[in-house]
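Dear colleague,

Thank you for sharing your sequence with our group. We've completed the structure prediction you requested, and as agreed, I am returning the results in plain text so they can be pasted directly into your records. Please verify that the sequence below matches your submission; if there's any discrepancy, let me know and we will rerun it promptly.
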Amino acid sequence: MKKIRIFSYDRAAGAYSFADYNCTVVLHDGQEPESGGTYRKNGGSVRIMTSKDVAVRPGDWLSLDTGRDRPDKDRDRLVTEVRDNRRGGLPHWRLILDGRAGVRVNS
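Please find the predicted structure tokens below.
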């Protein structure tokens, strides 16, 4: 299990808040071709093993460094999907990181 920090931006307060979770993390880095060139394609998947609600939504930032109080947008990963998989013998939340297709939610 890995410890991560999720940063959420609170518009009313004008600041980031964060929560720490224990989870499994699979990250991948690569390049994808596009219009005669390439773009950086970093992605990954995180599983937060809990049957409780978590305060994570698309647009939040995931950091493997739990010592900061703000996201580092050059190193941290953007959460693009949040999937509620709290059923069966292994209930968990699955977070999809750094998608190119925009931000969306699947429940």
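Summary note from our side: The mean pLDDT is 87.

Kind regards,
the structure core
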